[in-house]
Amino acid sequence: MKLQFKYAFLTLCLSGAMFACKDDKDTAVKPVDEKKDSIVNENVTIKANGVVEINSLPVPTTSTLNYNLFSFTKMGLVGVGEDSINTAAWDLAFRGSGLIMAPNWGGTAPDYWDGVDKFAMNPSDVMVAGYEDTTFDAITTAPAASAFIHTVGMDVSQPVYNTETGELAYFNFPKTTVFVFKLNDGRYVKFQYISIYKGAPEKPTAEIYQKDFGYWTFKYFISAKGSTDLTTK
Amino acid sequence: MKTLRFSAALLVAGTIALFSSCQKDDVTAPNSGLTVGGGLAVVVPDGGSINLSVAGPYASKTKGTVSRSGSVYTVSNFAQGTVTAPADSTQWSTVASTYYFNLSTNVGGDSVNATTVSYDLRFTGSANGDIYAYSGAYTLNYQDSAFATAKGVTTLAAPGGKLGTNRIYMGTVLISSSIGWYDYNITSHIVTAYQPRTLILKDRITGKPVWKVSITSIYSNSTPNAGSSATNYPYYNFQYQAL
User: Fold this and answer.
1) Domain hosting residue B66, numbered range
2) Hey, how many other C-beta atoms are within 10 angstroms of the C-beta on B157?
3) What's the per-residue H, E or C state across chain A?
4) Interior CA angle at A152 toward A203 and A91, to 5°?
5) Does the pLDDT of residue A3 top 60, yes or no?
6) Partners of B123 in the beta sheet?
7) pLDDT per residue over A120-129, tens digit each?
8) Which UniProt keywords apply (chain B) (predicted)?
């Protein structure tokens, strides 16, 4: 009986030692500072690599005559229409239906056209450079200052027409265009427009266009201050 | 908050008035609310005109003038190109294969790539005679009413989003008919604007009419420079007005 107790005690000690070793091993392979995605709200996620994903954000203004004003830093809309447009609080305007974009160029740039000083209404001067036939991750650094332009219209949508009736069937969004913005504080933003349909389906159809139009999906990455590094992979 | 906004609006209005005081007429453009980025529409003084070669971001590739009478804008001899004719600075030696015009900002537009999309009307195809509306914002429609009275309420959709050739004549004999903005005579090779036909650009989402446009002529000064096979095209002459 004594012997049996000794064996039982030995078995217990060995098991304890083995489990202890297993625990140590598990702890050793876990990174100490593992980064995780951060969910800001139902439409905004900050990925572990710093990329901000805007997913199926409803387009609030559906008239083409108005603008929805987006702030990269605030990760959301900061105003709609004329009340907010003449401020530097926004970076990128989306024209009503959500397809057409315009960076906040306060109208202050010289040589735009004669008499432009009449419209010098806000101090913003966001500029943009465009890349075609590329991918989001392939753009790893901001271009030289000379590559940036002022523009009043950006659009990556590609209309697809019904081959029988000739009417517009839907818009495609090939993910081959990437923009880099230069913000007022000197930081750079790598940006890709992904979809205007709810859930960002890979292959839009006429039915999806009719049913699920009006939800933005896009992603962007803001560089550190003073850095041109836009690496996201 | 309302008071503050009103004060700010007054300040802005005052600033505009101050800077614009050298222009004797009212400078409040009826479509100035369409501007973005601090206001980028070129103001055409009421009763006056602007030269498209010096106004707008694409002035260097644009020729023509825009004049204004109240809320009606009249475009004359609009064309885009790359090399100015040596003998006549209002003409191009090399015209672009596609023209762009921005009704919102009253100047020539562009669309080289996804970063420079700025237009409401696109003129392309044979003799740049096919007209499209910018599909990101509008659908193209038409109604057979005079420009002055067209309201854009009862309209028909432009087939395939395009308005180009309407009817083709051989002399006085009609040989082909479709839906477009111009009739073409294959005997004289002269293009004539079909009237009354007013182009209506509708908001692609809401369906509301936004602009009405009437094409007057594709020839410079609205007159073919010969009775047959005129060569002074494509120089667009048209009117537009916000609805």
Assistant:
1) 2-242
2) 17
3) CHHHHHHHHHHHHHHHHHHHHHHHHHHHHCCCCCCCCEEEECCEEECCCCCEEEEEEECCCCCCCCEEEEECCCCEEEEECHHHHCCCCCCEEEECCCCCEEECECCCCCCCCCCHHHHCCCCCECEEEEECCCCCCCCCECCCHHHCECCCCECCCEEEECCCCCCEEEEECCCCCEEEEECCCCCEEEEEEEEEECCCCCCCCHHHHHHHEEEEEEEEEECCCCCCECCCC
4) 80
5) no
6) B99, B131
7) 467 888 999 9
8) Signal
* CB contacts, 8 Å: A103 with chain B: 37
Over the stretch A173-198, which tens digit does the pLDDT of each residue have?
999 999 999 999 999 999 999 999 99
Integer Cα distance of B243 and B200 in angstroms: 9
Q: Pick from B20, B34, B114: which is nearest to A155 by CB?
A: B114
- The residues that bridge with B236 in the sheet, in sequence order, are B78
Cβ <8 Å between B40 and A119: yes
Interface of B with A in 176-195 (CB under 8 A): none
ipTM over the 0.85 cut-off: no
Q: Which of A103-112, B68-77, B85-94, B102-111 is the least confident region? A: A103-112
CB A67 within 8 A of CB A91: no
Residue A25 covered by a domain = yes
Same domain (yes/no): A201, A119:
yes
Nearest to B118 among A108, A121, A153 (CB): A153
pLDDT for position A28: 58
Check whether residue A29 and residue A44 sit in a common domain. Answer: no
Task: Please check whether residue A116 lies inside any domain of the structure.
Answer: yes
CB pairs under 8 A between A and B: 146
Residue A229 lies in a domain: no
Structural domain boundaries enclosing A2: 1-34
Smallest CA–CA distance from A128 into chain B, residue: B115
Please give the single-letter amino acid code of residue A106: G
Angstroms from A66 CA to nearest CA on chain B: 7
Higher pLDDT, A196 or A35: A196
> What per-residue confidence (pLDDT) applies to A5?
55
Token output for B208: 């509301």
Cα of A104 to nearest chain B Cα, Å: 5
Q: Are A25 and A52 in the same domain?
A: no
Q: Is the CB of A177 less than 8 angstroms away from the CB of B114?
A: yes
